[in-house]
Amino acid sequence: MDSTVIRNILKKHWGYESFRPLQEDIIMSVLSGRDTLGLMPTGGGKSITFQVPAMALPGLTVVVTPLISLMKDQVDNLRRRRVKAVYLHSGMTVRESKIAREKLINGGAKLLYVSPERLRNQRFIQELRMTEVSLIVVDEAHCISQWGYDFRPSYLNIRSLRKIFPKVNVLALTATATPHVESDILRQLEMKDAALFRMSFSRSNLNYIVRNTETKIYEIFHILSRTEGSAIVYVRSRKRTREIAEYLSSAGISSTYYHAGLDISLKEERQNEWQRSGVRVMVATNAFGMGIDKPDVRVVIHFDMPPSLEEYYQEAGRAGRDGKKSYVVLLTSRADSGLLRRRVTETFPPREEIKLLYERVCNYLHVSMDEGYEKLAEFDVERFCEVFSYQRRRCLACLHLLGQAGYLEYLEETEHRSRVMMTCTREELYHVDRLSADADLVLTRILRLYSGLFAEYVYIDERVISRESGIDERRVYESLLELGRRKVLSYVPRSRSPYIYFPTAREDKRYVMIGKDIYEDRKKVISERTEAMIDYGFGKGKCREKILLEYFGEQDGKDCGRCDICRGRNQRSGGKEENRLARIVEYIRSRPGGADIRIMERDLRIVPSQLSEYLSYLCGEGFVIFEDGLYRYRR
Q1: Residue 109 sits in a domain of what CATH number?
Q2: Are 160 and 147 in contact (CB under 8 A)?
């Protein structure tokens, strides 16, 4: 296929004149019918590499992804661009699933986003056989490898698609894969003679800094007060997100916080406020960031050490997506290395404890012996831990290992926004009578606020309806229930709940096997991953970026010259750059009214491009400020 075709598609639907590096190469490989593996760091534009070919190919593109929230966001975004797309996942109502399946069968979709768990559903597989599938896409492909940092057994179901559609090529994409994981992806997906495209993990605009301190919260304030632009502070505790955000706000730095336990409407509100720079700092757990593409994040700070370099690199990669100089700071303390090593031990409870928890989960969910095959049940993990006196982290560790062994799967707590679809026709609306005054008012407001209600489910916000109708949220909720009872509309209230899925019937705990590959071998891999993270955080002699590049298989990387290690080396050697920086600072300090860059070039005899880079560095470090077209010394 001519490259002009895909460029026209890019221009028509996305408005871009050209592709980012590697995007066009991957797309042309896919369109040639070849299996393809793309390793593209966070922010590299992975989605374009399958969305554009989906528009160029004649049939359906099936996209397997584990992230329901990202699935929804991408489909909503595609629909806004007039691209026909649908999704299917376990959290949908029967009616929603039916509408999506009808679109598939009738050719009403070019892209289908599906969770890996859905591939076990035989009815879905049979319906998929009736469609013309042109491409299979595996997003977050590292999830199929048990050596990856986020292995998900349900991803192994993807291999069944290859058997059903043997002539359809596969595109596998990931942002973080070591050479070992990369090889395993190719093996698990049976990708023979695959084209491999690897973007360098080097980000020339990122400055990797590690600061050892016993007062991390004050160090965060220090960093943010000497830098400008949007920032993210990552922590590992929900409670700490609020504490740090409140501290920063009280110190005059606008901040908010985000974690998985917040109400979905509150999360959306805070995310949107940060996206539009209404608040400068987002303090968050790792629940924040997937699908976020804010280009002007100048600082990413890690309050706690992540468990692996894969996670660290992915979260750090949210800084500087616009290509401008940005800072990635890891804060460490004496206790951190011991804490990370203890977490490895906690991740692998004794086998007998895992077996006992399996038995208790089955009893708690009323699953009898030899029953439960393909059962899906809501699971209140907090209540379960309370009943059996488990620590939540230890309980989740057992569930994770049971999932990898194939006995059950714990589906993380997922949130679903409220949604509505009209179940009567427009003509029938005129004959609806005896509604309460509140229900009549709510119905009128919904029809005015939202479009597409007669074709499919549409997300709604009860707070907006409350504000527009002038009645409180409780009455809005009751009115929606009334409209549902009268068959005027179908209302699905927002919900948040985890599930347990049983892929096999219940076993006697005596016969539950947690194999060596799942326990000892994986523990070894996680221990090695932990030590690599510790070496990065506490190493003193090697360039930070070079450590990252070598970890991801790039062995010929050079010292970056930007990280704290490289800068420290330059300072100790008294290099020319440090002398030039000192001269520039002294020059600006001697001019209280401010210094003009053109006069500086003449007086200091520094090449303009170099001078601009030095000044950018000094502004970023807080030594100098730029205002009203002049550079001034920051006192």
Answers
A1: 3.40.50.300
A2: no
Q: Which residue has the tokens 């949220």?
A: 473
CA 371 to each of CA 59, 90, 173, 502, 511: distance values in angstroms, whole numbers, following the listed order: 40, 21, 37, 9, 15
Whole-structure pTM value: 0.77
Q: In Å, how far from its chain's centre is CA 91? A: 19
DSSP label at 374? T
Cα 109 from Cα 86, distance rounded (Å): 6
| 403 belongs to a structural domain | yes
Pair 322, 369 in one domain:
no
Q: Specify if 560 maps to a domain.
A: no
* Domain presence at residue 564: no
Distance (Å, whole) CA 183 – CA 147:
10
Cβ atoms of 168 and 132 closer than 8 Å: no
Q: Please identify which residue in the block is written with the tokens 């409780």.
A: 474
Check if the beta carbon of residue 483 is closer than 8 Å to that of residue 491: yes
Alpha carbon 361 to chain centroid, angstroms: 29
Contact 282, 300 (CB under 8 A): no
CA distance linking residue 84 with residue 1, whole number of Å: 22
CB 51 within 8 A of CB 82: no
- The 3-class secondary structure across 484-514, one letter per residue, is HHCCCEEEECCEEEEEEEECCCCCCHHHCCC
Q: Is there a domain that residue 354 lies in?
A: yes
Q: What is the pLDDT of residues 234-260, one digit of tens each?
A: 999 999 999 999 999 999 999 999 998
- Cβ atoms 230, 277 nearer than 8 A: yes
Contact (Cβ atoms closer than 8 angstroms) between residue 220 and residue 233:
yes
The whole-angstrom separation of Cα 86 and Cα 100 is 6
Torsion from C-alpha of 373, 377, 381, 383, nearest 10 degrees? -120
Strand order in the sheet with 85-88: 85-88, 111-114, 60-64, 133-138, 170-174, 36-39, 195-198
The list of the chain residues with pLDDT below 50 reads none
Q: What is the pLDDT of residue 555?
A: 84
List, for residues 563-615, the tens digit of each pLDDT value: 989 887 766 555 566 678 888 988 988 888 888 888 888 888 887 777 887 88
Question: Based on the domain organization, do 479 and 543 belong to the same domain?
Answer: no
Q: What is the mean pLDDT of the chain?
A: 89
State which residues form the domain around 278. 206-339+528-551
What are the percentages of helix, strand and coil residues in the chain, rounded to 5?
Answer: 45, 15, 35
